[in-house]
User: Fold these one by one.
Assistant:
Number 1:
Amino acid sequence: MAEGLSAAVRTGRHAAHVTAATAAGFYPALYLLDRPVAGIYALFTPIAFGILSPLPGAGRDRAATVLRAVPAAAVLVALGTVLAAGTWPAVAGMLAVGFALAFGAACGPRTAGAAPGLQLFYILACFPPYEPGTLPQRLVGLAVGGALLALAEAFLFPDAPEPSYRGRIADALDAAARAASGVVRGEGPDPETAGRLGAAGRELRLSRLPAGARPTGAGRTDRALAQAGAATRRLLDQLALLAVHVPAPGDTVSADLLRGIAASCTETAGALRRGDRGHRGRILPGPQLLEEMVADFLKARGGAAAGPEPAPRAVLVRRSTVLTAAVSAVTVRTAASLALGGRERLHGLPREQFWYATEGPARLLAVRIRGNLTRRSVVFQNALRTALGLALARLVAGSLDLSHGFWVLLAVLTLGRTTAGATWSAVRSAAAGTLAGAFAAGLLIVGAGGASDVYAALLVPMMLVAFTLGPLGGPAWGQGLFTLVVATAFAQIAPVTWRLAEARLVDVLTGSAIGLLCGLLAWPAGARAEIRYAMSALLRSAAPLVRATATAVTDGSGRVAAPAPAPAGPSASPGDPGNPGPPSPGARLTLHRLRIAEAAYAQYRTEPAASAAETAHDWLAVLDHGSRTLVGAYWLPRTDGMPGLPPEARRWAREAAEEVVAATVRAAGFPPDGVRAGPAPLPPEVAERVPAPLLAPLTDVEVWLRALARDLEAGSAPQTPQTPQALQTPQAQDAP
């Protein structure tokens, strides 16, 4: 109830912004300056950016987005004005513009939010009459409307600031610091702490954030924030495991590293809140960076293993879990530093994990675009569907010489959905709403006749009602009320008859039919048809990476990435292989397919299920499996192998890895009954023969394989579908 009331208040406030900006530009242009063309663009600019475009952010953020989009809109208006000379040039331009703007969704939420409004400016300009001499009026109306909307968004009933993802990461890191300190104190099994950590991790899911606050852009900052959020969720999960286990008294090796984790989390959280860059990108000002503490932990663990009384297996497993948590904390610290503008040199860190750190904006954008130029990308599918629909609508409207034909394209743009079923539902509602709105508009025009003062008096309250109830009521309310708005506005520009309402109805029905046809012919099932393929491809690419990683750890062959010499510097440590060389093809492929799978999952969670009885797999667990595979490939191969490892131990590692690989391949087919993936634990009699210094890294592999197996079992088991919602996990980083 409270959430619904809050949404209504936000919608009403936003409607007031658009109405005020529209009235302040439309009336002076029409009645004081007698410039109807400028008035039309001053009318539609706030509607395009304020209603048609779901701009992210609030207040001044939205205003800044509008101002940045106005130059691009001016280019589209000029292009459309020139191409309006003929139907075929306008159709070709619509195809290119439609695809480019819709494909821009891959570049981030701000580009995706402004794209529908930008489409409208080309649509308006590319229709007859061909009057290039009116271009100055069009541009003036556009500039005035954009400036007025920006002022209204920034200063008229401004929205409260939206929660930032950076702040949520900081809150989660504070919870992680408290949990790590509690584990050090040995407070015993604490399910309540584990529950709080789980809740903190859920707050980092992108579904809990407004669209504008989600770090899904192609730039370094968004990539780093997304990586920091994902690593923080892993850190919370690992600390939750430690919180519910029985503490190990006297385990000073783990205690020191846990204190380092707590200190790193606290410092990183503070830097995120302050926005500090720190010294040379390092945001942990203490005497030791956490990666140095990890190196010290490895040395201390090796020294303890060489002692007279090797640690029990349970303690080794616990230390391996602590090490995994520390790796996540290092990832968070480094990614947060990059997000704050630091230039981390990545001493001792896997460069492959932070490949974007040294790339420029143009390179990062090119990687994002190239990665989505595949028919398996839902972004590509949606862009192609939208472009074809708009181009076909422009061809039909131009060939049939429909009155106010741009309404045909506007219907395609506003009613198109990612599935044919959802498009049909929207079209049915829109048709009913447009019919009712056309009937009401016809009565208004017949009753008011040519009394322009009546229309002038009705336009503002009508816009306020339409822009408030339309978004809340759905397509029927939106199309019906908008029909009244355009009829009231156009009646002030030129004399009209009831045939205007008829033209509006015909155009909307034509556009609806074209949009439905495109929805039926081009990927009608949306992401539901694509997600299984994307997840299967992710698992197939992850399987050989699991084998390569296990092999690299145990014998040094088939390394995931070729090592580079250890760099000189305060963070270099003995035995550290330094920064790996160029990314391996296996890691690149898995990273690329992880990104494609997450994009499909993002759309899938917004689409309604085909039926109540439809079942779906736990795709989130599959994504976790891919992410965990990559993390292991980045961090586990710390040495050139394990000389002296007994053959039976090497054979166990190979067989355990092959069990997970085989289960991953089976899971890629998503059998009806799921898969069982239980790699055999290291046998005690084998563990006794493993040299003590080698038992700990072998345990790291065992813990990693078990975690992968849990992800596989969860991801392959059929689940009851949940209510559609936004993306649950941060967007994966693109492969370079």
Number 2:
Amino acid sequence: MSDQAGGLPRLQLDELLAELQVRIDAVRGTRDRVHDLLEAVLSVGGELDLAQVLRRIVESAVLLVDAEYGALGVIEGTGLSQFLTSGISAEQAQAIGPLPSGHGILGELIRHPEPLRLTEISDHPASYGFPPHHPPMHSFLGVPIRVRDEVFGNIYLTEKRGGAEFDGEDETVLRTLAVAAGVAIENARLYKAARARQEWLEANAQIVSDLLSGAEEGSVLRGLVAHASRILQADLGVIALPVGDSTDLQVIIAVGVDAEDHSGLVLPSQGSFMGAALAAGGSISTSEIRKDPRVTVGPPRWKGLGPVVAVPMLGEDRARGVLLLGRAEQALPFTEDEIAPLAAFAGQAALAMELAERRRAAEQVALLEDRDRIARDLHDLAIQRLFATGMTLQSSLRFIEHPEANERVLRAVDDLDETIKIIRSTIFGLRAKEADRKRLSLRARTVAAAESAARTLGFTPSLRMEGLIDTDVPQAVAEDVVAVLEEALSNAARHAQASAVEVSLTVSAGRLVLTVTDNGVGLPEQGRRSGLRNLAERAEQRGGGMTATAREEGGTRLMWRVPLPPAQLP
């Protein structure tokens, strides 16, 4: 009896000791788990790079709740823009195919951002199975990550090791980690934003320095694309400008991957992504350029690109072009925070183009002023002296009795006359730069020639034009017309002593007629007429002719006429 009575307390004591050991182990396990949780929080919070923060979160979550697989999905709109996994090898991920976009159980947490714990995934109404080659998954635990009042994303865990189920303690631990993750993500975002602002400020300072130093437009624009590509981690950056008066856009600068395939590319505004940015008047973006419905034209040159952003380069009066940045396929989309500074930076490109345009205009004005000064000096000094010398020689002829000497002096006078013609031709060339003149219409050039002659005539000739002058007259004929008009007005200024000159240019019935009439002294009966012969030869080469006749009321009428090519007829 005594042994039995004494054995019972020993049994109860053993049970009590065993229960105490279990509780001690539980406390130790809880302590270790809390310690692991604190280490995970410190590890996650110690990172400032957002990509590393997200990677640390999913890895820590898998370790804390002893799950075989884990993932972190970043929410954008109603889907997932990023999906980081743990426990899936690269070979498995490639066999599974594209990453999920936010349907099924994953979408359930997006639609209802509350913790979700499941014993069997397939039993949930939102589940519709896994893609081929996907590892089997049964138990599930999901918790949202909140950054302030925004749901940033979700942590997904599956397959608790040992075949057990996720319990309430696992959920509590994961929710605690999610709170710490939200703080870490916010800190990483703030750090990234501060660093980006600093980089934008440095890039802007560099562009302004280049502009003030007078760097070439192309160099400034290329530097601008390089800065934007570096800051936004873009794989391709391009600038496209309008083509003349058309609505097409041509890529003039391309930097980055496959830049040679994009350089020089011409696309219409309608149906192109850059054209859509112009039409929108602000920045537009897409997560996958090759599937964007706004891109309907052009060759398949977007191969290898995924996220793309385009922003118009807005100047004072109009959009100067478009800046486009693209990242490789599967890369992260451009966020609103990233895109926000891009509009102001693109404005720097427009400013660079405006400054270059004004610089060219100022240089052109300076050049024209210099040409005008040279022309004025030639006219007022050189020609007047040559006139005086020629008149002196002519007045000296009556004192020369030797026939041969008389003939030589006459030739010298003719040479002076020819020299004056050359100088006058040079003056006209200086006052109207040839490259600029060719860009003007024939009507505009005719008006310019008449206005230029006013300096030597002392008055502005009257001008009358009729017909489809700018439409039916070929460029080569237009060049002859301007040359003939300048020569005729020059002759009127030099020889006619006229007080009025009338110019008529008409195009009718496939024929061009230029008439120059003055009220001067008329044609001399004897004298050199090489200039008129040149005009006649120009007409004959075009299949036409020229006449110069004296008017009954005094003065001269020069009529220069040529047929127009049949292809130019209305």
Number 3:
Amino acid sequence: MSRTHDRSQARRRHATPGRIGRVGRQAVPGPRVVIALLLLLGLVSVMLLDGYLRAEVGNDQRVRSDASASQVPNSVLDGGPFLSFEGGTAHTRSVPDKTIVLTFDDGPDPEWTEQVLDILDDNDVPGTFFLVGSMISRYPDVVRRMVDDGNEVGVHTFTHVDLSYQSSSRITREIAQTQLALAGAAGITTTLFRAPYSSTNDAIDNYSWPVYKKLGAMGYTSVFIDTDSEDWQKPGVGKIVKWATPKNGKGASVLFHDAGGNRAQTLKALPQYIKKMKAKGYTFTTVSGAQVTRSTQSTQSTQGIPGAHASPGNALQNNPDQAAHRTADTATRWEGRALLAAVAVAEWTVPGLAAALVVVGIAMMGRFGTMLLLARRHYRRRNRGRFTWGPAVTVPVSVIVPAYNEKECIANTLNSLAASTHPIEIIVVDDGSTDKTAEIAESLGLPNVRVVRQENAGKSAALNNGVRQARCDIVVMMDGDTVFEPDTVHRLVQPFGDPEVGAVAGNAKVGNRDTLIGAWQHIEYVMGFNLDRRMYDLLRCMPTIPGAIGAFRREAVLAVGGMSEDTLAEDTDITISLHRAGWRVVYAEHAHAWTEAPASLGQLWRQRYRWSYGTMQALWKHRGSVTDRGPSGRFGRIGMPLVVLFQIVTPVFAPLIDVFTVYAMIFVDLRASLLAWLAVLVVQLVCAAYAFRLDGEKYRYLLMLPLQQLAYRQLMYLVLIHSCVTAATGGRLRWQKLKRTGEVGTPMPGTEVR
């Protein structure tokens, strides 16, 4: 959609698309801008959370190996698998003879962990599961069942990183976040810990030893193993059972995995292993149960009852302080539940948005391809030597210039019209200006210029007044800050040689393109607006006659009731009305108007906000066009879906491509993500270059395209979100006057504006 600049309208009042009509006058409410920004912030937060769940920023996969252990006591390196620091001194404990502690790493997993739990239940044995916090957050129901079934759980960090590489704050965060997730999932915390990539005592080195001392001071028992099934290698069921079997009746802390890959062999080996060990007289317990049993054995041995075994369950009941699980306090449980809720949102939102972006990406590529094909066809058809609209139009036309406080621009505008090669009458409708706009227009002493004064009533009222005052059958409408080339009017009205044509859209160009913002808008006008119009022209569903330059049959305008005050987008409104009345709307690409685009981000925001919101209002007002029959229903069948898709839906999602690119660069694959983004940029660059070629523009402005994609597109996204929020909340919006400088003069045909 292409329109030009805003006008103040003190008495106009507008409703949302759902309630077209008049509502109270007031400025744009600030909270809606805040809501728009909060939506973006919320999306970014959700994506960061999702990325963190998969791998913290940087995706740290470093694993230390072959480091010296000179600072680690030999009693720890050669000791039992349970390491604690009572009184600040390292102590290790072993698993009692004929006792197995089944430990599982890397879960929970919704597929494999559930089946492991089934096997443990069927064989009436407990397990100790060392859980990854990010997996707990994603699959809390599995953890809840795990604990309810009497199994024990421990911390296996939040993102499964080698802690020997991490800072002290990162280590604390890894543990605390896992505990928070555990509290949210099962209402408990745990004192058990196992570090990734460090399953046995001899894996402790000078780098990781301070980590274990830190965790010991925090009250954690670090759990290692002395028997490894090595099921992660998938060596076969027989070898898994063999490697998990301790020798000579010794007790063992045995490692299996319930996540991290295909665990089909583990599931087959586990029941065989349990039956084998039970047949050998082994009992199964948890880490806490093994420690209590060892303590009980030591006490009994001291009392002269060697070899006596206490029941782990009874021992834990008699020594509740030895249990690893602690009931989380209320605040921690609620914080954990909040984390799980946020993760659930991320788990649904990010994949959903990713799928939506695939659809949007396909739509965008399809749009680019369609625009290129139809624009080329349009150019070749319109620029053939024998093309004509019919008899040349030479009759005088009326040019209507609505003006409100245009003292900086009105002289340039009227002087450009005075140089017109086509016979015209000029009607300046002064809409209650307070800066002597009307006086300036009259003082120029130009022929065929009439100044009509009215009380401030808004742009639509000014245009309707001008149409009533017009003496010619064809009226040209322009803005008071726009300038025409000498042959613009003549080129603009030639399509009226076809009696089916009711309105003509001209080619609006940015005159003040020497600034960064101006250059961005120049690219947008040439690529987005004018290339679009070529496509819509061929499809006969032009959505908008731009306010900067448009021509109409006077009878057609009057027949549809003139310029409506129902929406902020009066140009889109009347264009759709003409379609529905059976008139054809076309594009005259050689009829140039030079307009002064907003010079600051604030002015640009206000202009595009009004455009976006006004378009939504117009589309809602004419929603019934989708059921129109016959030729007059062409816009509803073709134009309406295209406008909704390409001017509302796609722009909302398109900037997310950049956001997802950053997400993928940080959390997935930097090189592949960057190459994908560059590929999309190249496609856009090709389209833009072709649009510049068709419009005869200099290519040097395309150097601004990458920066436009990074900054300008995000601003347009926020504007559109702001408009959607206003529409959804019943917001009110008044016309807003943009500050003008009058720097855009009247270029001669073919002259490049610098």
Number 4:
Amino acid sequence: MAAIPTQQTASRAGAAPVHTAEGAEECARARVTLLGSSLAPGAARAMVRAALAEWSALGLPGTRHLTEHLAADALVVVSELVTNAVVHAGADVEVGLQVEEDGTLVVEAADQHPSRAPRSAGPELPHDPAEYGRGLPLVAALAEAWGITYRPGTKTVWARLPAPGAEPADAIAAGAAGIAEAVARAGGDAVGPAGCGERSAAYAVERRGTPPAGAAGREADGDPDRASGGPTGPGRRRPRDREWLGRGALSFLAEASDLLAGQLDEDLVASLTGQLIVPRLADWCGVWLEDEALGRGAWSDDSGAAVGARLARVWHAGEGYLDELRAALEKDPPRPRDPWRSGPVGHPWPGEALGPDAPYGTALAYPLVAGGRPLGTLVIGRAGPPDTTGTPDTCDGSGFPGFPDEITGLVEDLSRRVALAIGAARQYARQATISAVLQRGLLPGAVAEIPGVRSALVYEPRDKGGPSGDFYDLFPAGDGRWCFAVGDVQGKGPEAAVVIGLARPWLRLLAREQYGVPDVLDRLNQLLLDDATEAADAAARALVAAGGPPVAPGDGPQTRFLSLLYGELVPFDGGVRCTVASAGHPLPLLLGPDGAVSTVACPQTLLGVLEDATYVSETFELRSGDTLLCVTDGVTERRSGSRQFDDGDGLAAALAGCAGLDAELVAERIRRLVHEFGPRPPEDDLALLVLQAE
């Protein structure tokens, strides 16, 4: 087979170039290069789905042999190969797909680290989920043969998936769509093609009689003609349980992982869990979440009930049963258990809550544990006959009527992924709460009212989950004086919060100690320099104490720069005297009643840069109708393509159009113009302060 040239795609996993069929006279082929990130497996699966559906529609050679089962196997194999490459090579991954004339699918994943062998999955410990995929044993179970090709600078892992000759053909387009729908429409964007290269394996493994994963599920009892949706009757099973468990379950887990991993709200995770499970795996489910505010010690009361848990979500195949089911589950919450005990245990059947058609059934409770910490419980149920011989409290999945072992094992795998998603969502919520509290502490609780001056403020941090680099203040300084500040710290997040937490209190302290505007900037500049020097010295001492090399000058923590516009207001009869200075900050603009706009300060050096910097101020008067506009660079540097909002004095032109408006309307108009300047939302924090003489 001749080598096919590689088509390079966008550098972001999930980009969607147009699919083509290259070399249709030989075979249907596709190749795509994906960024080595967590998005790569999902993008690879999307490429496989889209390519197979398109090739089948075009009737390319070999596609008439393709089936839904073969497509599901290909999705699982490409997911495992790409996951191994991303986790263990950490480089871009080149994914190839080919359909041979007999319908055999060939899947490849190539990376740039040939010295690193692919990972084979070992035994999985309880509550230690396989974060790196299930490994090559799963590929070996599904493939006719697989192997590894080593070339200079490249390692390619490939697998051959034969088409079953006895199964119906020409079903791939509908099959691929059905697989995506099974995970609540969680599929990614299509990713585009090129060819698949010649293979000369360094070693290969043939599969000899290895049954497909989950094949035992096809031997379970069941009635394939039973309609889905709603509870099944005694002795019945979901349609195609046996068939779906053998192949589609593996793709289901892979896609469910992608769907859950992107959620940052634990209640949304609980809701998605219900939609994933019902009606595919169970008639109903409930998700209990532990209340972190009560702590681990509040998990049970005297009767053993989980007091520290709340029923976050209830889902049923029939919506008419939701209220009754919720009430029944809340009356009988899951009992606490050893968090290290894996697998399901029996849970009381809710009985009459599900109506006369489901008097009996089996309910199972799965612990949701991540990082050794219990996060809640997943309860699922299926209607069925009462068990007279089983042991419904076993933890190995056996003896549960209505639930084949494959179902209980699949839900256990899913519950681990749900627990990881809940843990991640809670961690994000904790960080967002800390950031919000920190942000509130860095900004004034209220803006001071100044006699004879109207004021208006716009403050829009871009990152809602972390401290902003912009800040403002307007406060009384005593003796008939008021001071204002609009600043911007280099960087964002905790480091910016440290600088703001240092600057704001010192501004207020120096102002109330009667220091003038230039003196305040001089002292604040020295304070930032001293603080950065102390931090660098401390880091150097810590590194030397740990046995590291001495830190050379300039190699330690860098000085934290601050741009600041600072001013003082003194009202008098007929107006307000304003003294202002700008340290590396956008200059303030003065708007007169006639629409004339002028700058009222001179540019000077950033704070925290030069040891011997000295600052000067300018004084002017705000008369009736005059408006002073102070902004951060999130306004002046707002981008639309290659243009910025303040190009060609754009901010001054926008302010000139605000003549005759009061302070609040001026602030709102400038904010709106900034937002409308580009097609996308602003990429930087926005802060602007308007001061207007009455």
